[in-house]
Write a structure and sequence with these properties.
By secondary structure, this protein is mainly β. The protein contains one helix and six strands.
Length: about 150
């Protein structure tokens, strides 16, 4: 049976990333991002937010630690992982986190966002309104049945 585990998140760091090294010298970076839900507000009318724990390893860890700080937007691609352990009191503990395969900027270098002030989203000119001529063209040939199609 095939399986698939892919997570793509875009949000803002809730605090500065924390970079550590394993005993063998491998870099590991932990951070949390806040992601607004598309729909939903709480009782006070504020946007509902989910918080996701992210773990990045090696070059990805070093990249995140070097270029991202609290409040910065970030796009993370990775996989969902759940692990468990027994704490000092013998209690079974669980954590679910995203293991980042990739992390990238969501704004161009220099921090300039091309997003308009109102509307909250940016679409390049290539995605603007379609421009086409709605007049009938005689350059297309009518094919009377599907059996005449070349494929």
């Amino acid at each position: 049976m095939a399986s698939f585990n892919k997570v793509i998140l875009m949000g803002n760091l809730t605090q500065d990333p924390e970079l550590k090294q394993t005993a063998t010298g491998v870099s590991v970076c932990s951070f949390t991002i806040a992601v607004n839900r598309r729909f939903g507000k709480n009782e006070q009318g504020q946007q509902t937010v989910d918080f996701f724990n992210i773990v990045a390893w090696r070059q990805t860890a070093e990249f995140v630690n070097r270029f991202f700080k609290k409040g910065n937007p970030i796009l993370v691609c990775g996989q969902l992982q759940t692990r468990s352990w027994n704490d000092n009191q013998g209690q079974k503990r669980y954590v679910t986190e995203i293991i980042a395969d990739e992390a990238t900027f969501t704004t161009p270098a220099g921090g300039n966002t091309a997003a308009p002030q109102q509307g909250g989203s940016y679409a390049p000119d290539a995605y603007g309104a379609a421009s086409f001529n709605n007049t009938q063209s005689t350059s297309f040939e009518d094919i009377p049945s599907d059996s005449d199609l070349p494929f």
